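Section 5.1 Outputs to date
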Amino acid sequence: MRCPWNDLRLFLTLPALVVLAAGAGCVSARPIAELEEGEWLPGGQATNTLLLGRNAFLAPAPNLSADNEAQFFVGNSFFNDAWVEAPASTGARDGLGPVFNARACAVCHFRDGRAAPPESSEDSKLGTLVRLSVPREKGPGQAPESVYGGQFHDNAINDVEPEGDFTLSWEELPGRYDDGSSYSLRRPVLEFTELNYGSLHSETMFSVRIAPQMFGLGLLEGLDDDTLLRLSDPDDSDGDGISGRVSSQLDGETGELRVGRFGWKAEQPTIRTQTAAALNGDIGITTSIFADDDCTEFQPECLAAESGGVPEVEEEVLHGLSVYAAALAVPVRRDWEEAEVLRGKLLFSQLNCSACHLPNHQTSDSAPLPELAEQSIWPYTDLLLHDMGEGLADGRPVGDATGREWKTPPLWGLGLIPTVNGHDNLLHDGRARGFAEAILWHGGEAEAAALGFRALDAEDREALIRFLASL
């Protein structure tokens, strides 16, 4: 019989405190973790403690200056409103396409949250996209696909044909925990149903991605490059089986080699370049950083389409969008003092999940906004690239990230995605239906943690999931 941990709400100070939970003929004694100062405020002074429920991801950092708060709401407007085809009377918002995936940022990042992949051919694909690349003909690395570019676009403006359409279906993979109870994982099967500009290159590599949640990005940029370099251990010199390494990326704005930290494979070094890349790839909007539309020589109507300006986004708009993305506040933790959650926290450490999902950091004084500097934060990430095994591999390198490597995503706020977005899909392509499936997909450097989770009994598995849901 499962013991009612949730009946206890205790403020604990001793590590590995044993709590006896009694009820309905059940007594259990299991060690739990200690509380740590400030962990319930994952964004430090920039934590959202007031706006929760369905609006939990919408709040600006409460410590913003008046000027930055004004910029936040400028960015909020451009994030949520649709872009239109050029030319238009609304000159500040024209330039959509010529090919695109969505008309507004908020279409994919609904309520600043996380998208879900389509469950069937009838479901919307908004928030789901397919990245494309081929090996370079000369030299190492990857290049955009010659006909369709770096991203497959299933929408287009008038007089331009979309690149085509695709569907996702799901293959179920049954399995069992060590205690005999069953589970089922699933993986997506991608099929292009229309290719309006001809066949894809025979060596094209594909990667399905879903739009992630938006909050806390400025705090993550506040971890300076030196911090991430100190965390990296590419040769596993300490012998713990974890060999995280930084993603080295060219800054599209400065041309300098920087540490990447945004995107599923850490392909962008700053919020500005990530914002500009998303505007360009997803909506077809050019900026001073990415000045060309994703049209190839095989798409003459796309190349000939009228522009919304050069560039289509003026600097003040890009700045406002960047401030908006930087200042969205991380929601306060829930249930952090419950005994079952603290039991899960202990198991998280014992399974060595915290080796990659590093709990705590201190932001530097070079954070993108001064209000985000020198904050003690709890994102549960090292922002490094890790080999996640063949099961999660997309086979598509990005920069110096291999087809088996993924950036450690932060875990903060994930427990609120069902409340905000109405689903619990996790991982880069949304294949995982909840935390358990996400853990079970871990391979490579994280395989030992996944095997350890599979070996837990049902009560401990639930405790670990409750901890993750509290973040």
